[in-house]
Write a structure and sequence with these properties.
Number of helices: 31
Helix content: 55-70%
CATH class of the largest domain: Alpha Beta
Distance between the termini: 32 Å
Largest sheet: 5 strands, antiparallel
CATH architecture of the largest domain: 3-Layer(aba) Sandwich
Structural class: alpha/beta
Number of strands: 20
Shape: elongated
Radius of gyration: 38 Å
Number of domains: 5
CATH superfamily of the largest domain: P-loop containing nucleotide triphosphate hydrolases
C-alpha cells in the first residue's frame, strides 16, 4: 500500500494545479447541483417488518384520508381565565383552517359550519381541558409530514391569527414546513478551537490552515452529494449533520498527521515533492487504514437491518471517504504549493544537556513514565474507573424523537408541553388500533367489539370510538395512554395490547394491530436494541482481524479491543447520566432530559470503533517501529509514545472540539450522539490509548509482539509505517551513490525467498550466469516477473522490486516451461509475440524473419526432438511442436525482439543450445541465464557467475 500511496503523492505533487482544480469543480459543482435540486430530506422514520410499520402501510393504502400528516393547534386562555368566552372565535378559526386546500379534516372543540372537506360538527368536548383553560384543534392533512409546504403553514397561521390578536396563546404541533437543506453551523466554534490547537501544535498559522481548508472541502463535497442523493432516494434529515460532524473531525485529523510528517521530512532536508510523496506513503498508510476502519464500521450498521440507519451509515461513510480522498490527493497538491514555507522554525534555545542524551536513553514524557512505572496498578485503576463510568449505560432507555425533542421555545415544543400539561402525558403519544374487518359480515358488531376491548386495559387513559373506512374493510380507533410516549410504561402497554390480539381474533373472527408513531418508535427501539450484540460482535471481530494484520501480533489486537469496549461503555454511561439522569444538563444546554435517540448507541459504537483504531494505529505503530529497531519492549513503549503523543493529543483535542461544538444549542437528536463521541474521544485518547495501552504493553513486554508462525505466513503485511517506501528510498540512494549503477545489473546481498544472499555487478552487454536451486527464482525477479526479492538490486537503473513494471516492459523473458501457444502456425506466433514485445510494424517483417532463423538454429541445436525436421516454416502448425519446440519458439521471440535485457532459463538445455542462444543474442543486449553447474559457455562478452542457493533451513524443510 505504501508504494501505491507514494506514487499517488508524487503524481498529485507534480500535477498540483490540476488536482486543486478538480476538487474545486467537485465542491462548487456539487453545491450548485444540491441547491438546484432543493431539499428532499426526510424527518420521518420507518422500519419494514415490524407490526407498527406494516399497519401504517396498510392504513396508507386502505385509509388514505389518514395517511397524511396530522397536527394539533393548541389554544390557551390567559392565566386565570377560561376559554369558553372565545368559543365563537375558535369555531371561526376551525372553519378557516378547514378551508385550506391541503386540509382534509378538522376536529373542532365547538360547533362549526361545514368548510372545505370538513362537514358541520357539534363540537368535541374531549378537546377541552379539564380546567377549561385550553382547547386543541385536530388537523388532518393530505400531504406527508416531510412534504408540508411553507404556504400551508402560512395559511394556517393566517387562519388562527385572530385568536392571537385576541390575546390567546396559539401553538401548532405536527405541521411544520420541510427543513432547509443547510446544517447547523455550530461546528464553526469547533473549527476555531481546532485552528488554535493546530497553530500551537505546528507553530505556524499557514500549516494550521491546511487541515481546515481540506476538511471543509471534503465536507462540502460529501454533504452536497448526500443532498443530491436525497432527491432520488429516501435520506434521513440527520444524515448531513452526522456527515458534517464526522467529516470535519476525521478530515482535520488525517491532514494533521500527514502535514506533521511532511514538515518533519522538510526539516531533514528533503525536496518538497519528495517530502510530500514520502509523507503520503508513511503517514498516509496509517490514515488510509484508519479511514477504512471507520467506513467499515459505519457500513456495518447495515447489520441492524433498518433502512434509514443503513442510509445514515452510508452517508457518514461517504463523508469519511471524501476526507480520506482529500487527504491523499488534494492535501499533497496544497502542501506542494506552499513549498518550503512549511519548514518548522528551529527552537530559539537548544538544551545541550538533554540533546546530548542518546535517544534510546531518554526517559520519555512524564505521563508515560508514570503510566509504566507500576503498570499493573495503572491498568487496574483505569479499568475500575471506566467501568464505574459505564454503570449508567446499563439503564439507558431508547426512543424515537417526537415534538418533545424539538428546541425549547419552538412552536411544536410549546404545543407539546401545553398538551402534556392540559390533557396528560399520554396525549402526545396516542396509539392507533387498526383492524381488518373485510371478513366480517356485521360491521357494527365488529366496531362494538373494538370499542369494548381496550377501555379497561391497564395504562389506557381513554379510547375513541372505532370508525371504518369507505370500503368498510378497515376500522381504526385511537388509544390515549396514561404515560408519556417515551416512558417504559407505554412500551409495556403496547406489549399488553398486542398480547390481547390472539384471544380477540379467536373470539370475533378478526384481529387487530397496534401502530402509530409511538408504537413505531417502540418497535424501532426494540429492533435496534436487539441489533447491538450482533453489531458489537461484528465490530469486535473486525477490530481483532484488522489489528492482527496491521501489527502482526495477538496481544495488540486484544488490548485494542479491550480498550475500545471500555471506551464505548464509559461514553454511553456519561451520555446516559447527562441526558437521562439530568446531571449537568442545564450547564450543557440539554434540550430534553429523557430517553436518547434509538440509534445513538449503535452509531456511537460504529464511530468510536474507527476513531479508537485511529489513535491506536498512530501510537502503537511507532512503538512497533522502535521495537524493531531496539529489540527492547520497555524502551519501545516510551520512545513510541514520545514520537506520537504530540500528534495524538492534538488530534484528540481537535475531534473533541468538533464533536462537543454540536452539544450546546444543538438538536435533542444530535446532542447525545455528539456528547458521547466527544467524551469517548477524550477517554479513548488520554485514558485508554495513552495510559492503559502503555501500561499493558509494558506488562506484556516481548510477548506483546508475538504471533504464531503459521498465522504469520497466512496474514498479509499491511506495511503501516511505509517500510517498503523507506526501503525503496534507501535503494535509490544506494543506486545514486555510484553513477555506474544507472546501467547494467547490480546487486548487494540480493535474496529471493529464503535463498542465500548474492552480490554481483554486470556491465551493459554483459552476461550473468545464475546457478543453484534458486536460479529460476532469481531470474524471474531480475526480469521484473516476481516481487519476491530482497536486498539492494538495480536493473538498468531501476530498483527492484519497486520499479519492476519498468524492468518487465524492457525485458524478454523465457521460463523453463513455455506458456501455451494460441496461434495456429509458427509464423502467426512469431509475429504476434513480437508485436506484444513492442516491435513496431515497420520492423515486424525483418524481426519475424530473424526470429524464424533463430528458431531453426535452436531446433537444430536441440536435435529436432518433437519437431518435423526439414519441414518447419511459417505455416508449420504450433500444435505439432512438443514442449521443446514451443520453448524454442519463445526463445526465438526473446532473442529477436531487440529488447535491452534478455532473461532465459537454460537449465537442462544442452551445451549447443546455450551456445546458440549466446551466439544469437543481440549485440546491444544484456543477458541473464539460469544454467546448470556443468555449463561453461565461451563468448567474448563479459561473463559474471553467481549462485542462488536455498539456505540450509530451506533445504532441510524440502
Amino acid at each position: 500500500m505504501s508504494s501505491v500511496l507514494y506514487r499517488i503523492g508524487r503524481f498529485c505533487a507534480r500535477r498540483r494545479w490540476w488536482v486543486v482544480a478538480v476538487w474545486l469543480v467537485l465542491a462548487v459543482g456539487g453545491g450548485a447541483a444540491a441547491g438546484a435540486l432543493g431539499n428532499h430530506l426526510q424527518s420521518s422514520f420507518d422500519i419494514p417488518g415490524t407490526q407498527a410499520q406494516t399497519a401504517l402501510d396498510a392504513l396508507e393504502q386502505r385509509f388514505p384520508q389518514l395517511s397524511g400528516a396530522s397536527g394539533r393547534i393548541v389554544v390557551v386562555a390567559p392565566e386565570g381565565a377560561t376559554i369558553a368566552g372565545d368559543a365563537d372565535a375558535i369555531a371561526t378559526a376551525c372553519e378557516g383552517v378547514a378551508a385550506v386546500a391541503e386540509v382534509t379534516a378538522v376536529g373542532c372543540p365547538y360547533p362549526m359550519s361545514a368548510s372545505g372537506s370538513t362537514p358541520a360538527g357539534a363540537g368535541a368536548p374531549a378537546q377541552i381541558s379539564a380546567d377549561g383553560r385550553m382547547v386543541f384543534l385536530s388537523v388532518q392533512l393530505s400531504v406527508a409530514a416531510e412534504d408540508v409546504p411553507g404556504t400551508l403553514v402560512d395559511a394556517i397561521d393566517q387562519a388562527t391569527s385572530p385568536l392571537s390578536d385576541a390575546g390567546l396563546q396559539v401553538a401548532v404541533s405536527g405541521i411544520t414546513a420541510a427543513a432547509s437543506s443547510g446544517v447547523d453551523w455550530t461546528e464553526i466554534v469547533g473549527m476555531a478551537v481546532a485552528f488554535l490547537v493546530l497553530a500551537v501544535t505546528f507553530g505556524s498559522l499557514l500549516a494550521a490552515g491546511m487541515p481546515l481548508i481540506t476538511a471543509a472541502i471534503g465536507v462540502g463535497v460529501a454533504t452536497s452529494s448526500i443532498t443530491i442523493v436525497a432527491a432520488f432516494a429516501p435520506v434521513q434529515a440527520t444524515a448531513p449533520v452526522l456527515a458534517t460532524m464526522l467529516g470535519l473531525a476525521v478530515g482535520i485529523d488525517y491532514a494533521l498527521l500527514i502535514t506533521s510528517r511532511h514538515r518533519d521530512n522538510l526539516r531533514q532536508g528533503m525536496a518538497v515533492a519528495e517530502s510530500v510523496a514520502v509523507a503520503i506513503a508513511t503517514a498516509g498508510t496509517a490514515v488510509v487504514f484508519a479511514g477504512l476502519t471507520v467506513m467499515i464500521a459505519l457500513l456495518g450498521l447495515a447489520v441492524a437491518g433498518i433502512p434509514f440507519l443503513t442510509v445514515m451509515g452510508l452517508g457518514a461513510a461517504a463523508a469519511v471517504l471524501c476526507a480520506l480522498a482529500v487527504a491523499v490527493t488534494l492535501l499533497p497538491a496544497i502542501l506542494t504549493l506552499c513549498g518550503r514555507r512549511l519548514i518548522p522554525k528551529p527552537p530559539r534555545r537548544k538544551r545541550t544537556p538533554k540533546a546530548a542524551v542518546p535517544d534510546a536513553r531518554r526517559p520519555g514524557p512524564a505521563w508515560v513514565r508514570i503510566a509504566t512505572r507500576a503498570p499493573l496498578a495503572t491498568a487496574a485503576i483505569v479499568v475500575v474507573a471506566l467501568l464505574a463510568l459505564a454503570v449508567p449505560a446499563a439503564g439507558m432507555r431508547l426512543t424515537l424523537p417526537d415534538a418533545g425533542y424539538d428546541p425549547a421555545g419552538s412552536p411544536a415544543r410549546v404545543a407539546y408541553d401545553l398538551l402534556n400539561e392540559g390533557f396528560g402525558p399520554g396525549f402526545n403519544g396516542p396509539l392507533l388500533i387498526t383492524a381488518d374487518i373485510s371478513r366480517t359480515l356485521d360491521v357494527e358488531q365488529a366496531l362494538d367489539a373494538l370499542d369494548g376491548e381496550f377501555g379497561s386495559v391497564e395504562g389506557v387513559a381513554a379510547t375513541s370510538q372505532a370508525f371504518p373506512n369507505e370500503a368498510l374493510d378497515l376500522a381504526v380507533l385511537t388509544i390515549t395512554p396514561t404515560s408519556a410516549p417515551s416512558s417504559a410504561e407505554t412500551g409495556d402497554l403496547v406489549q399488553r395490547l398486542r398480547d390481547l390480539a390472539p384471544a380477540f381474533e379467536s373470539a370475533h373472527g378478526f384481529g387487530f394491530q397496534v401502530t402509530g408513531q409511538t408504537a413505531l418508535a417502540i418497535d424501532i427501539s426494540d429492533r435496534l436494541g436487539a441489533a447491538l450484540l450482533p453489531f458489537a460482535l461484528v465490530v469486535v471481530g473486525l477490530c481483532l482481524l484488522l489489528l492482527m494484520i496491521m501489527f502482526r501480533s495477538i496481544a495488540v489486537p486484544v488490548t485494542a479491543t479491550f480498550g475500545y469496549l471500555l471506551t464505548v461503555g464509559a461514553a454511553l454511561g456519561v451520555s446516559t447520566a447527562v441526558f437521562e439522569w439530568g446531571w449537568a444538563a442545564d450547564l450543557l444546554g440539554v434540550g430534553k432530559v429523557g430517553p436518547v435517540i434509538s440509534f445513538m448507541p449503535i452509531l456511537v459504537m460504529a464511530v468510536l470503533f474507527g476513531l479508537a483504531m485511529d489513535y491506536h494505529v498512530f501510537l502503537v505503530s511507532r512503538m512497533r517501529e522502535r521495537y524493531a529497531a531496539t529489540g527492547d519492549a520497555r524502551v519501545s513503549v516510551r520512545e513510541g509514545f514520545s514520537a506520537s503523543a504530540r500528534v495524538v493529543t492534538a488530534a484528540a483535542l481537535i475531534m473533541f472540539s468538533v464533536f462537543f461544538s454540536f452539544v450546546p444549542g444543538g438538536s435533542a437528536i444530535i446532542q447525545p450522539i455528539a456528547l458521547a463521541l466527544a467524551v469517548g474521544v477524550l477517554i479513548d485518547a488520554f485514558v485508554v490509548r495513552m495510559t492503559l495501552v502503555p501500561a499493558l504493553m509494558t506488562l506484556l513486554g516481548d510477548r506483546a509482539w508475538w504471533l504464531p508462525r503459521g498465522l504469520a505466513r497466512v496474514l498479509p503485511d499491511a506495511d503501516i509505517e511505509g517500510e517498503a517506501v523507506q526501503r525503496m528510498l534507501a535503494q535509490r540512494r544506494w543506486r545514486d551513490d555510484d553513477a555506474d549503477r544507472r546501467a547494467g545489473l547490480h546487486a548487494r546481498d540480493a535474496v529471493v525467498g529464503d535463498s542465500r544472499a548474492a552480490s554481483f555487478t554486470v556491465p551493459d552487454r554483459g552476461v550473468l550466469l545464475v546457478r543453484g536451486d534458486r536460479a529460476d527464482d532469481l531470474c524471474a525477479a531480475l526480469a521484473g516477473r516476481s516481487a519476491d526479492i530482497g536486498g539492494d538490486v538495480a536493473v538498468r537503473g531501476h530498483v527492484l522490486p519497486f520499479e519492476r513494471a519498468a524492468v518487465a516492459s524492457a525485458t524478454a523473458y523465457v521460463g523453463a516451461v513455455p506458456p501455451p501457444a494460441d496461434a495456429e502456425s509458427v509464423g502467426d506466433y512469431l509475429g504476434g509475440m513480437l508485436r506484444l514485445n513492442g516491435v513496431p510494424r515497420r520492423d515486424l517483417a525483418a524481426r519475424t524473419h530473424l526470429a524464424a532463423g533463430v528458431f531453426d538454429a535452436l531446433v537444430d541445436a536441440m536435435g529436432a526432438s518433437g519437431v518435423p525436421t526439414g519441414e518447419t516454416g511459417p505455416d508449420t502448425p504450433v500444435a505439432r511442436l512438443d514442449e521443446s519446440g514451443r520453448w524454442a519458439l519463445a526463445a526465438a521471440v526473446a532473442l529477436a525482439s531487440g529488447l535491452p535485457l534478455v532473461v532465459a532459463d537454460l537449465r537442462g538445455r544442452a551445451a549447443p543450445v546455450v551456445a546458440t542462444v549466446l551466439g544469437r543474442l543481440d549485440p546491444s543486449a544484456t543477458a541473464v541465464f539460469a544454467v546448470d553447474d556443468a555449463v561453461q559457455p565461451l563468448t567474448d562478452r563479459s561473463i559474471v557467475s553467481v549462485r542462488a542457493d536455498a539456505t540450509a533451513h530451506e533445504r532441510s524443510r524440502s
